[in-house]
Amino acid sequence: MSMVFIAVTALVVLSLIFGAILGFAAVRFRVEGNPIAEQINALLPQTQCGQCGYPGCKPYAEAIAAGDKINKCPPGGETTIQALAELLDVEAEPLDAVEGEKPQMVAYIREAECIGCTKCIQACPVDAILGAAKQMHTVIVSECTGCDLCVEPCPVDCIDMIPVASTLQNWKWEHPLPPGTLIATDRESLS
Amino acid sequence: MSTWPIHPLRGGVHPPECKALSNQQPIQSAPLPKQLIVPLLQHLGSTTEARVSVGDYVLKGQLIADSANLISAPVHAPSSGIVSFIGPQPYPHASGQLMDAIVIDTDGLDQWCSLEALPHFYQASAEELLDKIRQAGISGLGGAGFPTVIKLSPAPNQPINTLIINGTECEPYITADDVLMREKAPQLLLGIDILVQILQPENVLIAIEDNKPEAIAAVRGALQSRRYHVIAIPTIYPSGGERQLIEILTGQQVPSAKLPAQLGILCQNVGTAVAVHDAVIEGKPLISRITTLTGQALQKPMNVECLIGTPAIELLEFTGLQKAQMSRLIVGGPMMGFTLPSVDAPIIKTSNCLLAATAEELPAPPAALPCIRCGDCAEVCPANLLPQQLHFYALGDDHPQLQAHNLFDCIECGACAYVCPSSIPLVQYYRAAKADIREQAQKLAKAEHAKERFEFRQERLRLEDERKEAERQARAERLAKSKAEQAKKAAQAQAADPAEASQAQAEDELKRLKIAASMAQVALRKAEKQLDIHNTEELQSQVEQLRMAVEQAKQNLDAAKPAKTVNDGPTDDEIKRLKIAASMAQVALRKAEKQFETHDTDELKVQVEQLREASAQAKQTLDSATAASSTVSAPATTEKAAKAEFSPAEQAQKKAKIEVAMKRAALRKAERNEADAATLTTLQAELTQAEQDLAALN
Predict the structure, then answer these.
(1) Out of B370, B424, B450, whose CB is closest to A47?
(2) A15 interfaces chain B, CB cutoff of 8 Å
(3) What is the reported pLDDT for B563?
(4) A47: domain CATH number?
(5) Å from B454 to nearest chain A CA?
(6) How many folded domains does chain A comprise?
(7) Residue A28 covered by a domain
């Protein structure tokens, strides 16, 4: 009988101690916000373009954390999908976009046609358009994320999206063919 | 002379040197080209901006481009002539892209601008010397082309105790530094003196590979009493790499992602030291360099002193290019150089060699076969990396693993690819992977930046909305307050004289109607006059219309009058009139009844009935009028009744009442304006007096 009593007492005491520790930890090490959504958000390209159907990158990150698909981000492309698949340990899927992956774009305002309506300025999520009412607007190229959002509101259609030009600074060496991928002439020359 | 201990390089290869091809003759001056293409970017760092415009005449040595950015080097005119074009021109870069350049049509005079020499540099301060070097536009002539002045200005808490002058020139074919040391040893040592003057190092080491005995002898001969160490190091590729040379000479490894300066060591190329000499002692900016022109496709391979901006093709033709034999034209050496995309590309500050190779000399690389994991690459890697491992990670785009295996410590020397039995272009993989990683890092940084800007914008919009909302609320509050005040005032006015407000309103309305009626009347009269003169149908119909309009106006006016009566209570006259009408109706009814009693006819019966109705109506009207007068303005009626009987008394009462209202208003006003207590008391007393007077009159 006393054995049972000791066992019960010991378990009760243990449960109380661990309960106290857990309770303390829950308060002391409380994490604000959703850490997974934060990590996902860090991988998204932050163009805030809304092409995923959410009003910005953070809402999409939260949606992914809640179980949405990871292939809805055209500006991020395959790279982002791969990174997300790795982070979340899910299968990478092909990009879900009509036009597929597009090169990095930048907005260009044909300044002679701009009427200074400020509509594009209000649409730009990163304040990359400079101008004032009835003054010509222009795009700060280094800040433009190429999100397309300024094109739609322009009443005179003077905004073009142009691919970012290749310069000496952003030029990349080409990837060589993987070894062993030989064409017929290569085989001939080897033998 | 003490011997300096050297530490043999781990790894490395011994490719055929082929240096004898070009180092058998003295340096020759290249002919002045007709056109010089001077690119705006010839160094690592930010590009410069042109300081001349098309059509300007420039003198040799004149500044033509500069940048406000720190990591940059100014550009000078290599010869005198006219600027004929500023814009995209061929550029020695592996991509084959164009680069903005200043094109100068030379005039053949080669006329110098005025130069400021500083021959007694021993008396100059380090700042003066550094400024001179910066103004001369010197960037490293060895390979990478980092602006020299940045390298020479280390952090103040980081003294340089070892200055290494790099004369190793380990890459095959290239002999530019070799012949430079042979022919310009005194200038080289003076240049080193200037660097020593700036840096004050404890040791100065001049490292030369032992395959250049003439150069070693020349430098040693020019040494005189200087206490610099001229060290012959074993020939091996790539001993001339900065980090490799430091390891050979000091045994120290420069940690990954750190600079040699953080170990107190600084490396400068021999060519750079000579350029420093020219800049300080002769005042000449960096406008020419010694370039090796070599390869089996050239008839007379040699080293030339050529102007920056000389198109490659002119130099090659000067040395007897056999175009048919040339299979590849390489800038730099065969190990680290790249194929020049266009023979029109100019020589820039970093171009140390042009290699016009025949197909036998540099055969096209055979097709790559799969890696057999022989490990030869790891043995020759001078940076102690694992090339085959990096190769596999690069194939799989495994960026974290590539970085974990220190991909960025790879100096792209090509030793691994040189020994690879499967002919795998390993360096290409590393270059592509490095570019990818850098691009992704840039994208990430840009995303982070965009996020910051986006969040800042959201915050700004939120604050703006909050501010607007607050303003809106304040406005609404103000409006409500003023409305309440108005209502209060109106209530006060009503309390002071309840009849007045509504009466005034009714009177206004009545006045308006009266005016409308009289105007209609006037119009009618005018029209009638017209009608009298010219009697037309048109006028007649017009008059008819006007008459109707007048009738309408009158009706409106009449309709408004009873409304007024109801509002302000029927006047005595009205009631009197109604009474008379009622009694007359009564009398008529009685008469008719009497008649009906005598002659009982149907006609009379109807008449009586009608009269009875009319009488009842009149009575009803009278009753309602009196009722209205007693309910709506009982006091007024009584007053008016009183007025009818005792007019003077009524006048006095009215006066007293007005007095009371005015006093009350004055008191309110004083209260509102927060007048002092004394005034308030006086006003209060006056009001009480007036009220008492009124009560007495009542």
Answers:
(1) B450
(2) no
(3) 53
(4) 1.10.15.40
(5) 5
(6) 2
(7) no
- Count other Cβ atoms within 10 Å, centred on residue B297: 24
Determine the pLDDT at residue B635. Answer: 47
The residue among B429, B453, B464 with the most chain A CBs within 10 A of its CB, best to mutate, is B453
**pLDDT score for B564:** 47
Asked if B370's CB is within 8 angstroms of A180's CB, the reply is yes
Q: Is the pLDDT of residue A39 over 80?
A: yes
Select the residue of A56, A127, A176 nearest B453 (Cβ to Cβ): A127
Residue A184 lies in a domain: no
What are the extents of the domains in chain B? 28-358, 373-496, 498-634, 648-697
Establish if A189 touches chain B: CB-CB under 8 angstroms. Answer: yes
CA distance B184 to chain A (A): 35
Residues of A in contact with B89 (CB under 8 A): none
Task: Identify the pLDDT of residue B633.
Answer: 46
Q: What is the mean pLDDT of each successive set of 10 residues along chain B, which is 698 residues long? A: 80 92 90 93 87 94 90 92 94 90 93 89 89 92 86 83 93 94 94 93 94 94 92 92 93 90 92 94 93 93 94 93 90 91 92 92 86 93 94 91 94 93 92 92 90 92 95 94 91 72 74 86 83 77 82 80 52 77 81 73 74 79 70 46 56 80 81 74 81 76
User: What are the residues whose beta carbons fall under 8 Å from the beta carbon of B211, sequence distance 6 or more?
Assistant: B17, B19, B235
Contacts of B368 in chain A (CB under 8 A): 176-177, 179-180
The pLDDT of residue B212? 93
Tell the burial category of A87 from Cβ atoms under 10 Å away from its Cβ (0-12, 13-18, 19+).
middle
Q: Which chain A residue's Cα is nearest to B95?
A: A171
- Which of A46, A56, A127 is the closest to B447 by Cβ? A46
- The CATH code of the domain at B373-496 is 1.10.1060
Are B276 and B190 within 8 A, CB to CB? no
Nearest CB partner across the interface for A182, out of B367, B425, B454: B367
Q: Give the contacts of A186 (CB within 8 A, at least 6 positions apart).
A: B366, B367
Please report, to the nearest 10 degrees, the dihedral formed by the alpha carbons of residues B501, B503, B505, B510 taken in order: -170
Partner residue facing B97 (CB), from A47, A166, A190 = A166
Decide yes or no: CATH 3.20.20.80 for domain B28-358: no
Burial class (CB in 10 A: 0-12, 13-18, 19+), B379: middle
Q: Is residue A54 part of a domain?
A: yes
pLDDT tens for A73-96 read 888 888 889 889 988 998 888 888
Which is higher by pLDDT, A31 or A20? A20
Q: Do B424 and A166 make contact, defined as CB atoms within 8 angstroms?
A: no
For residues A161 and A114, membership in a common domain is answered with: yes
User: Using an 8 Å Cβ cutoff, are B255 and B261 in contact?
Assistant: no
Per the structure block, which two tokens stand in for B350? Answer: 């970093």
Q: Is residue A22 part of a domain?
A: no
A56 and chain B: CB distance < 8 Å anywhere?
yes
Q: What range defines the domain where residue A137 resides?
A: 103-170
Judge whether A46 is closer than 8 Å to chain B, CB to CB.
Answer: yes
Euclidean distance between CA atoms B137 and B147, whole angstroms? 8
Q: How many Cβ pairs within 8 Å bridge chains A and B?
A: 89
**Dihedrals φ, ψ of B548, to 5°?**
-60, -40
Check CB contact under 8 Å for B457 and A170. Answer: no
